[in-house]
Amino acid sequence: MTQQRSSGEIARFVLPVVAENAFTALVSLVYSAITGALGPGSLAAANTGNQAMNVISALFAMISTGCAILTARLVGRKDTEGASRTAEQTLFITPVLSIVLSALLIILVTPTMRLLMPGAQGDFLREGTVYYRAVLFSVPALVVTNACAGLLRAAGQSKTALISTVLSNLVQLLCVFLFTSVFKMGILGVALAMGACRLVSAVFLVTAVLKNHRGFAVDRKRMLRPDALALSRIFRVGFPASIDALAVQLGYVIINSMLVGMGQVHASVNSVLSSVLLFTGITQGIGSACATTLVGHLIGFGSVEGARRRLNQILLWCEGSSMLLCVPAVLFSGFSAGLFSKDAQVVQMASAFMWIQIPYCMAAVGVNVCEPAVRVGGDVKFAMWNISLCVMLIRIPLTWLFCIRMKLGVHGVYWANITSLSTRFLLDYLRIRSPKWGTREL
Predict the structure, then answer these.
(1) 63-96 pLDDT, tens per residue?
(2) What are the Cα distances from residue 264, in Å, to 59, 191, 226, 398?
(3) Cβ count within 10 A of residue 358
(4) Can you tell me whether residue 46 is helix, strand or coil?
(5) pLDDT tens figures, 156-213
């Protein structure tokens, strides 16, 4: 590892990340369109279950984010032994904890969905419950996938993550076609296709991590022996990330519950807009992966100013690319909305408000680039407090004010979120410019 990576090295990391996110977004668009075609409330019901799953993923961010941040810094420092121990303990603890949690959650499916879908009745509630129960069985595969993908990207192995994404998403598309069109399984088929996708991805990525010899190498015998020091470092770095991720996802759950309580139409409009964001917001995931790895390597090497310059390059590229993606979605808003719903009222409401994608994506891209950089720079507690307070003190109260009191519906949801995201972005960027950023040991 050198202080200044060549443009070729950067391209070999970035291009697979771009391809992975683009392919995932394309498959997700098709997947959402298939789900939306099943019935008037199917997409909203599935999104409610997915938001509950996102809370679970947020809980395990203490492992996936912690191991990725540590690995990026250790690889940048050329500490192969430390990176190897981090990878080994990640593979040891992740499946154990995820299996226990998924078993507990399966028992609580019905009361959980009644809580998340207040006032929902009939097919709407039934579809949400069926979907959520089925996807819970794939929790261990999801958690293992996130952890292994984070390890490989942090070590610079973005091509492997790309291969896994392409393979698993092709399996998902094939399965969702078979289960919904051939076997007529409805929303259950959508959930089972998701589970098949995650299982394939988990198996592929675990195999890749075990065979990896770039930045770290896993000793299979040592992997089965708990290492208190390595685990404590992962949890110490990852715990704040888990707290802030939980705050964000709980915010989504609470806000979605508000929308469901306002009626199926509002929930469906929000689901349509969220589905379009899979396309317009594609650079958010790209920016996050690039910031963690490329900025983390430079900090691990000791080049803090180089890390700041790299961050600015990533931020400018992602913001510009995101605006280019937003323009066609806004110009052809009726077509964009019509891909995910056949309900004329839902399509009309969503297309009329499609322009909100532009300010939303600007704020969201800034957050998704800067927050990983704040964490990998050692300020994991700052990120935790910034995110948690902005969600709890700005986003949720403003959503209630705009959505419920002022009766703005989905409009209120987005304006509240834009305000919260913009505040987070500003505070994160100011933190990165501070003298202490990048100097803390993890």
Answers:
(1) 999 999 999 999 999 999 999 999 999 999 999 9
(2) 29, 21, 48, 21
(3) 15
(4) helix
(5) 999 999 999 999 999 999 999 999 999 999 999 999 999 999 999 999 999 999 998 8
Tokens 């789900």 correspond to what residue? 35
Amino acid at 42: S
CB within 8 Å of 65: residues ≥ 6 apart: 150, 237, 238, 241, 242, 245, 375
Residue type, 130: V
Q: How far is 21 from 169, CA to CA, in rounded Å? A: 11
Instruction: Count the Cβ atoms, other than its own, within 10 Å of residue 69.
Output: 26
pTM of the model: 0.81
Please report where in the chains the tokens 């492997």 appear, as a residue: 160
Other C-beta atoms within 10 Å of 231: how many?
A: 18
Buried b (16+ CB within 10 A) or exposed e, 422-437: bbbbebbbebbeeeeb
295 within 8 A of 307, measured Cβ to Cβ: yes
| Whether 233 contacts 442, CB under 8 Å | yes
